Amino acid sequence: MSDRRELYRSPNGDCWFLGREPTNGRAFVIHQPNGPSGGQRSHIELGAFLANGSGNPEQQALLRLIGTLVEIPPYADRT
């Protein structure tokens, strides 16, 4: 079982999570389709998830989360 944090929940009920395998620390995205769709949960490698560059809300949510890991130096242009 992996550790996970919700990234985004779509209006139709699909959910995306950032997951981490506790045994090796490897991160990945989990897509959990909404129940009525009958889809299967999938694990997606981070590079593959971001590769298409379509800017979907779930991709933007992951990029915002990654951005929170970086401190902005006091001399940086914040505009």
What labels describe this entry?
79 residues, alpha+beta, 4-stranded antiparallel beta sheet, 2 helices
What does this structure look like?
The chain has 79 residues and is an alpha+beta fold. The protein has one domain. The protein is built from 2 helices and 4 strands, in the order E-E-E-E-H-H. The protein has helices at 46-51, 57-67, and strands at 3-9, 15-20, 27-32, 42-45. Strands 1-2-3-4 form a 4-stranded antiparallel sheet. A hairpin with a 5-residue loop joins strand 1 and strand 2 (15-20). The termini are far apart. The mean pLDDT is 87.
List the SSEs and their pairings:
Blueprint: E1 3-9, E2 15-20, E3 27-32, E4 42-45, H1 46-51, H2 57-67
Antiparallel strand pairs: 1-2, 2-3, 3-4
Helix content: 10-25%
Oligomeric composition of the shown chains = single chain
* Number of extended strands: 4
Averaging pLDDT over every residue, what do you get? Answer: 87
